[in-house]
Design brief:
With 194 residues, this protein is α/β, with parallel strands linked by helices. The chain is built from 4 helices and 13 strands. Strands 1, 4, 7, 9, 10 and 12 form a 6-stranded parallel β-sheet that branches. Helix 1 packs antiparallel against helix 2 and helix 1 runs parallel beside helix 3.
Length: 194
Amino acid sequence: MNPGQFRVSDADRDQVAEVLHAAYAEGRISLEEHSERTSAALEARTFDDLAVLTADLVPGEPRPALSLVPSTGEPERVTALLTESKRKGPLPVERNLQVNVALGSALLDLTEATFTTREVDINCTQFMGSITIRVRPGTTVRYEAANVLGDSSVKGVGEPSKAEPTIVVRGTNILGEISVRGPKKASMWRRHVA
């Protein structure tokens, strides 16, 4: 399937609208063009629909650098009740992920994942356990979950890059920990042996 035929998200439409606003503010398009193109951006369904709106405004390839895969439309769930649950490998990640933990732990390793959208919402419900989310360097992370006698941290993700997705962590963390980390580093022993 042609990548240009992949469905766009609201975040993709917003990004194009920002380019159009900047072009109007700089005098590169008229108010009428701005209005027409912004309306078309809001109604766009695919990346090809969006690309034509900014093709004469931005240099290079108008599509995002992040490699996207088609969405199945189904939210993914990771659940750990009195146990440990892991989700990792080169699997597709949908726009919405649900992680539920009670008296257990969940590892969500997205370092080899492929994404269906540029922004992923991870909705966490965590009670007396832990959730660890591993991301690639350059991933933008927004932590918006509510902590109730719990801890949260974001470490080792580096400077944000447009080639990586935005991860938004939402939900509730009660008496436990939600942490977002960069890729796991090889142990000192393995680095010396290699």
